Amino acid sequence: MIIQLDQIKDHGMTCQYRLVPHDFPDATAWEESGGFKLHEPISIEVTLNRIAGLIEVKGRITTTIDSSCGRCLKDFTFDLDESFDLTFTNEPLTIHDDGVDVEEGVELSAEDLGLISFVGDSIDLTEAIGEQFFLALPVRPLCSVECRGLCPFCGIDLNEKKCDCAPPDFANKFSALKNIKIN
Ligand SMILES: [Zn+2]
Ligand SMILES: [Zn+2]
User: Fold this and answer.
1) Which residue would you say has higher pLDDT here, 99 or 89?
2) Are 49 and 56 in contact (CB under 8 A)?
3) Residues near 23 by Cβ (< 8 Å), separated by ≥ 6?
4) Which of 45, 65, 94, 106 is 20 to 30 A from residue 32's alpha carbon, by CA?
5) By C-alpha distance, which of 58, 64, 63 is closest to 84?
6) Which residues, other chains included, contact 166 with Cβ-Cβ below 8 Å and sequence gap of 6+?
7) Residue 95 bridge partners (DSSP)
8) What mean pLDDT, rounded, does the chain reach?
9) What spacing in Å lies between the alpha carbon of 139 and ligand 1's midpoint?
């Protein structure tokens, strides 16, 4: 995903890619994320624009992923659809303080300003987009936000059946506290 800057015209430029997680430099992040399987390659669409000395990248990542629910453990499939904005710069950035006693400007790095720095006349989007993809993966995938999960006592799937296991009894816990004597 290397873009030559002179390819970016005044009206911007759009590129499309289809990748797998191992195309990204940090493929171990995919292995460690565990439990996810891709149904299809990851579709990436990016639009690049030059704005002053900056390269603005607007992108969208979509794919379909197989996973298992963090509550009921059932396998399910979900669509990942994530938009992102990135800004690249190759200019050194110096913010000047207009205060009378301040003589020196404060130098901020590109990273301090949320920008991604690059050198030369091309930018490589691979690492930054890989990061966006791994960030978009759910930490605890759920088959549905309403998933009731498994009963912690008998283990049945509470989406399908009810059980007679006792719910945690707060009233009893409080009555037990009443009997504690503090000297
Ligand atoms: Zn579930
Ligand atoms: Zn139960």
Assistant:
1) 89
2) yes
3) 126, 130
4) 45
5) 58
6) 153
7) 106
8) 85
9) 14
Nearest ligand, CA 158:
2
* Tokens (6 digits) for 172: 């009893």
Report the percentage of the chain scoring pLDDT > 70. Answer: 81
d(CA 108, CA 152) in angstroms, rounded, equals: 52
Residue type at 8 in one-letter notation = I
Going by their DSSP bridges, the two strands 37-38 and 42-51 should be labelled as unpaired
Find the 33 Cα to ligand 2 centroid distance in Å: 30
What residues have a C-beta under 5 A from ligand 1, the ion? 69, 71-72, 143, 147
Which tokens hold the place of 10?
A: 């005044």
Q: What is the pLDDT of residue 100?
A: 46
Phi and psi torsions of 145, nearest 5°:
-65, -20
In whole angstroms, give the CA distance from residue 85 to residue 2.
17
The pTM score is 0.76
Closest CA to 112 of 93, 84, 90: 93
Q: How many CA atoms lie within 13 A of 110 on its CB side?
A: 15
Amino acid 103: pLDDT: 46
> Which residue, 13, 23, 57, is CA-closest to 43?
23
